């Protein structure tokens, strides 16, 4: 999840949803798209299905969801 629209290389703003956090608060999802994550100077991974949550002040990355998509995390 990211609250920074400029992180997205593609963004479908017609996708709307809500996310519930551990403290039972909810925030609006205002889109879904792709974000590139730079691994080193020469390579970046494209992560799909990233949620755009404007209220977030920092990015959240789920290790479990990356592993479900066959990313190797070490």
TrEMBL record:
Pfam family, one: Pol_BBD
Residue span(s) of domain Retrovirus-related Pol polyprotein from transposon TNT 1-94-like beta-barrel: 1-71
Protein name, as recorded: Retrovirus-related Pol polyprotein from transposon TNT 1-94-like beta-barrel domain-containing protein
Family matches, as InterPro entries: PolX-like_BBD
